[in-house]
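Researcher: Please translate sequence to structure tokens.
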Amino acid sequence: MKVAIITDQHFGARKNSNLFHDYFLKFYNDVFFPTLEEHGITTVVDMGDTFDSRKGIDFSALSWAKNNYYDRLQEMGVKVHTIVGNHTAYYKNTNNVNAVDLLLREYDNVTVYSEPTEVMLGQLPTLFIPWINQENEARTLKLIEKTTCPCAMGHLELQGFRVNKQIVMEHGLEGKLFGKFARVYSGHYHTRSNNGTVFYLGNPYEMFWTDVGDTRGFHLFDTETITHEPVNNPYKMFYNIYYEDTDHQTFDTREYENKIVKVVVRKKTDTKKFEKFIDKLYASNIAELKVVENFDMQEPESFEAFESEDTLSILNRYIAEAEVSLDKSIVQKMIQEIYQEACELV
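Model: Translation complete:
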């Protein structure tokens, strides 16, 4: 039996941005649903963070999610197993109040898991593990120790895996706690990484500048072989363009329509030609444009900011190289959270 695994969809992301929802919808219409139909998929496992905000829901975001995702799955007769993640749990210390349970009760094909639960996927016993917090940690770890399920799926915060391309998580549970399983699949981190047993599958689409150039999509899981294969999302939202006296007349801007673009200037000898290049980008109806010509941050002589780096990677490397008597991983985590909150305000 093949099932689809998807995670960290973050419906309502970026303050319920229409730009991002249109981008998400292209993935669902062109990639996700056609793949389900092609392979006859009747079961979807959603490994958490289905909605973006744990504090509330924008009504238009909820309407979008129902019209474009849940209604369609219901019409197709697809059963959805939804695991509670940290973005869908209202409180930080318990999963008892959560968005997916409260918002999706009208769908008889959707089952929500706020507690660790053993579930049969076809003939495969599978342990579903929702977000681990103060209230459920002891029960969850006890069930992990006792279960005979060969496979686990959940929303886990484990050490040693990539949060994104720039950051490796240094906090959370140790991966060795899950060494008994043949396979562990998890959401929470948006980039793909694995240690051979634990697989972070990543989210379906780009949401922040830290995602640029990072492969996204969802996965098909075979319950008989306990293996998975990626179905990649070919659509991007963020683009880096490197300007080197580039001829605006021959530069094709069509793919940048409704996209977020950063122009990194490597060489500019003619200001008027550069302005024509920028005008052509604007004429292609890009959603947002940023031009980077130099780095004005005041840094020690030994620190060099590279033009190819994004803001967060520069900050993280600056912290890593700083001579300070602080836990740098904690500072980096704080900076990441602040940076992501700032991105969401845009």
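Researcher: Any highlights?
Model: Residues 287 and 334 are 29 Å apart (CA to CA).
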